[in-house]
User: What shape does this take?
Amino acid sequence: MSEPLIKTQDLRVEFPIGGGVFNRRVMTAVDGVSLEIPKGSFFGVVGESGSGKTTLGRALLNAVPIASGSAHYDDGELQLDLANMSPKELKAYRRRAQLIFQDPYAALSPRMTVRDIIAEPIEIMKLTKSRAETDDRVREIAAKCRLNLEHLRRFPHAFSGGQRQRISIARALACGPQFVVADEAVAALDVSIQADILNLLKSLQRDLGLTFMFISHDLSVVAHTCDHVAVMYRGKIVESAPTRELFANPRHAYTQKLLSAIPSLEIAD
Amino acid sequence: MSLLDVKNLTLQFKTDEGLITAVDDVSFSLNKGEVLGLVGESGSGKSVTAKALMKLNASNVVYGDNSQITLNVEGQAVDVMALRRPRDLRVVRGGAISMIFQEPMASFAPAISIGKQMVEQLLIHTDLSKAQAKELSIEMLDRVGITEPATRFNQYAFEMSGGMRQRAMIAMALSTKPKLLIADEPTTALDVTIQAQVIDLMKDLVAEFQMGIIFITHDLGVVAQTADKVAVMYLGRIMEQGPVRDVIRTPAHAYTRGLLNALPKLDDLDAPLMPIPGDIPSPLERPSGCVFHPRNPELRPGSRYEVERPPLTEVRPGHFAALFPEDVAGES
Ligand SMILES: Nc1ncnc2c1ncn2[C@@H]1O[C@H](COP(=O)(O)OP(=O)(O)OP(=O)(O)O)[C@@H](O)[C@H]1O
Ligand SMILES: Nc1ncnc2c1ncn2[C@@H]1O[C@H](COP(=O)(O)OP(=O)(O)OP(=O)(O)O)[C@@H](O)[C@H]1O
Ligand SMILES: [Mg+2]
Ligand SMILES: [Mg+2]
Assistant: This one.
């Protein structure tokens, strides 16, 4: 197995609950998670609603504060302590770690053309020297995500949901990230487009060596795409195994329950 | 008498780039206590069809002249298209019809607690007192599987996980006991165990109150488990329609077969994922003839489907597909 890109030790994330300033109570959303995400892997995270999957992903992207424990990033070139980053390190990390949203509708501004949507992160991070260079980069990424280049001047409403999801993937990839958190990135898509997008993400993993943290509640999708699956339950990782092993031999009661509840096409007479 | 009759619904949007046709001559009906599954790829017009029932589409919408939507409640036929004044529209917005929206985040006001929004909606649409409304809201949160419902009642939408938000919205929509429930992708953020619980709850309410449900989803497994009948849409047209068992076991249209084929299979993890080939065209470039013809692998070049629009032809009793009669005769 290759080196871990992300490594956490006893990671905790807490949220304050119940308004009061004086008797502050907290709820622990991520409760002592230790994991290693191998470089270049497609790492699945499944688990009950409210078990802390999104919060874990956001903590790894530095979008919520880490209460205790450690999280490290190491892509060979850059080593970071995610719980303690200087502004300069944070800037470097923003380039390398990206999020693909669940909802392509909400994620895309209706007043920007597709070209501008994909170019925005490149421009904000000043990754190119001229507009022409930005355009080249946008076209290259758009082609990789199999977007029609003639459509770059259009606004998002003229696209179907699947095309919009490809636009948001292109945007997430524009700054050349190493690590991508995909939070229910295909949940809202119909089965056909879902299959198409999953094939695309897998090819990016293969061809560009990207590492994915793939958060999903859909076990059949996870079974088909992930190399490794971690199961979360109440803030903790209760089971973690190579995909095949997990599906052949689920150990934790919650995993077993999940596997037995998948709705099938069989209809009782 | 059916609860809902939709006839010749046509719906377009005015945009800078021209007129977009989102729904093209769609008809269906729904009886009391019946669940209709509405499936189809992204952009096929499922959500805008549902929103038309409550006249909730964006202001750039243009309805076709022949479009007719009739809702039969308490012995009265409501002509939905003719409703104009806010107080008349209230009948279809949260009164007789409740809708669970596709984007849960957008359906809750961010600065008001979930509980307060649930109570307000009950005070508008029912005769309950404030205390009763609160009690019922907490009970509904409990029934959709939210633990510590009394605590969650006081939380804001952003404080909930994606799945909790979706369930809170389901609880809110069901609490007013509507005659017709429109559920737009209500379970996309839910894992299978909670999904099963929510589906059971909906079935209970159908049995208890004879509620009709329109269930929009891309998950054919969910449709198989919940719906009595199903309509398959593509680019604003109904491609196939009929009893759910019949349609899923013996799909007549290549589009329905393509959707079934694209489902990931759990018994063979090495099987490649099979999307329907080709891209969904932009709504500005609607194909001629059968809208699905450019992506239909079963058609030969020069086929009639490229230029002529096939009618909905009865394949088996109550089961219709957008096929020319000569392509139906051979099937058994
Ligand atoms: N306000 C609007 N202006 C212009 N076009 C619109 C508007 N609202 C919807 N559309 C278009 O109408 C078509 C149908 O959209 P709709 O949201 O009903 O699709 P859907 O079947 O619900 O898809 P999904 O599965 O992605 O939710 C799409 O092409 C969409 O872009
Ligand atoms: N900003 C916040 N403030 C307070 N509590 C929060 C906040 N964000 C998340 N939580 C709480 O943290 C817990 C974990 O939420 P999280 O969104 O990580 O769950 P999840 O596993 O992604 O669930 P789902 O599958 O439903 O999306 C939940 O109890 C949630 O209410
Ligand atoms: Mg989540
Ligand atoms: Mg929709």
